[in-house]
Amino acid sequence: MNIIKKAAAGMCAAVMLTSFVSCAEDSVVESQEQQIEISFSWWGNDARNKYTLEAVEKFEELHPDIKVSCNYSEWSGFEMRNQVWMNSNTESDVMQINYGWLDTYSADGEGYYDLGALNSTLNLSYISDKSLSYGYRNGKLNAVPIAMNAETVYINKTIFDKYGLDIPKTWDDFFNAAKVMSKDGIYPLSAAKKSMWLYLETYAEQKSGKTFLNARRKLNFGKEEFAEMLTFYKKLVDEGVLPPVERYERLRLDNEEYAGSVAWVSDANNYFGAAIENGRDIQVAPYTAMAGSETGTGWYVKPATMYAISKHTAHPEEAAMLLNFLLNSEEMALLQGVEKGIPLSSAARDYIKSANMLEGLQYTAYQEMDKYILPQLPTILENSSLIDVFFSYAKAVVFDGADIDESADALYAEIGEFFS
Question: What distance in Å separates the CA atoms of residue 261 and residue 246, rounded to the nearest whole number?
Answer without folding.
Answer: 15
